[in-house]
From TrEMBL:
<protein>
    <recommendedName>
        <fullName>NB-ARC domain-containing protein</fullName>
    </recommendedName>
</protein>
<dbReference type="InterPro" id="IPR032675">
    <property type="entry name" value="LRR_dom_sf"/>
</dbReference>
């Protein structure tokens, strides 16, 4: 769905049977206001994919603050999320709300030029996603370090890295639950060499 010009998701908030929502070319003006009814009690949204939405999650606080409606937002139905608003998404209120449902997360760095590492608050928020099984970092071209504390994601089975400038992975970054590590096109040779040294410690290692 091309939603260029749309400022909130309120026009879609009554689509209670919606299971998959893909929003393309969102633009900087679109925020998540109107999203929660789709993935809370009464909603059925399982998969959400967003592109070119650098400020999408900036509207979360406005929704959460909202009076009687807040009591209906008890738990989330969302299983899969792709977003290029990594900075906005990685906040304690959002990750706490999705902690019991989200199993697959793809963070895209299209709007994250210059980011070399995540803040302590963002790292702590990511660790709240206790049900997360698959995590992917896509096109963070300046990222020097993965978020600390990934080893605390005890349900994580697959980690994928695409087009990142990382040269290595910290020794304690990988959780014991990890079954698959994927280093995809665009990563530097130092990272590839480092990950080849992990062969035998992870059941499945894929390096392109």
């Amino acid at each position: 769905m091309d939603v260029k010009g749309l400022m909130t998701l309120e026009p879609l908030s009554n689509l209670s049977s919606l299971v998959t929502l893909k929003l393309l070319n969102c633009g900087e003006g679109l925020t998540c206001r109107g999203l929660q009814p789709l993935l809370s009690t009464g909603g059925q949204l399982k998969e959400l994919r967003l592109s070119f939405s650098p400020k999408f999650f900036s509207g979360w606080e406005d929704v959460e603050g909202g009076g009687e409606q807040q009591t209906h937002f008890v738990s989330s139905t969302l299983h899969e999320l792709m977003t290029d608003d990594a900075a906005g998404f990685l906040s304690a209120p959002i990750c706490s709300f999705l902690s019991s449902s989200l199993t697959k997360l793809k963070l895209c760095g299209d709007w994250s030029e210059g980011i070399e590492r995540f803040s302590k608050e963002q790292e702590d928020a990511l660790q709240l996603l206790s049900s997360l099984q698959e995590l992917e970092f896509w096109q963070f071209h300046n990222l020097q370090q993965l978020p600390a504390g990934l080893h605390n994601l005890t349900s994580l089975k697959e980690l994928a890295i695409h087009s990142a400038t990382l040269s290595s992975l910290p020794n304690d970054v990988l959780p014991e639950s990890l079954q698959k590590l994927v280093i995809i096109y665009g990563c530097n040779e130092e990272l590839k060499r480092h990950c080849r040294g992990l062969e035998g410690t992870i059941p499945e290692l894929i390096i392109h």
